[in-house]
Amino acid sequence: MTGPLLLLAAYLLGSVPTGLWVVRAVLGVDVRQLGSGNTGTTNVYRVAGPWVGAVVLLLDAAKGALPVLASGALGLGAGWTVAAGLSSVVGHNWSVFLGFRGGKGVATSLGALTALSPTAAAVAVVVWGTAVVVTRYASVGSLLAMLSVPVTLLARGEPGAHVALGAALAALGIWRHRSNLRRLREGTELKVTDRPSGPGGRDVRA
Known about the structure:
By secondary structure, the protein is mainly alpha-helical. Helices cover 70% and strands 0% of the residues.
């Protein structure tokens, strides 16, 4: 029963809406009502600034890393390990605390990947950073970074279970960014530096 219990715990941990709770504690506002409406790091950065964004990034990444590390500590096999990482991302994307809604899963995916393959995670971070600097769109960076993961894992000759997780995370990432892709086509996608306004046009960070 250890494996199934770990998957349940990973899902519940991933479901914790850190962006929503942290921004509410700091600013007293609902991050879902501002900017892109997402609870992830990029929108938290827009709404609450870089320090709060960094906190949410670390917490969301930890949600992905901890189940993977726990699986290793418990001596479970590679299959349970990658399933634990995927369960945490599924929890983040379809949170039981948010009516089975949630974020895009990028930071949580990064955490799971860092615990599993630090090199692939580092490549993804470089791809994300380069794409964001060039385009100013976090969504473009996230999509390209997640697509780089299975490619890097394959190039490194990592176990098939790792590659399968990378492919699953990339597929989930693309699926969760459907609205971003539509806004990119329409030219209405928010850039990472855009600052949302609160009631009456007041900057919520003012």
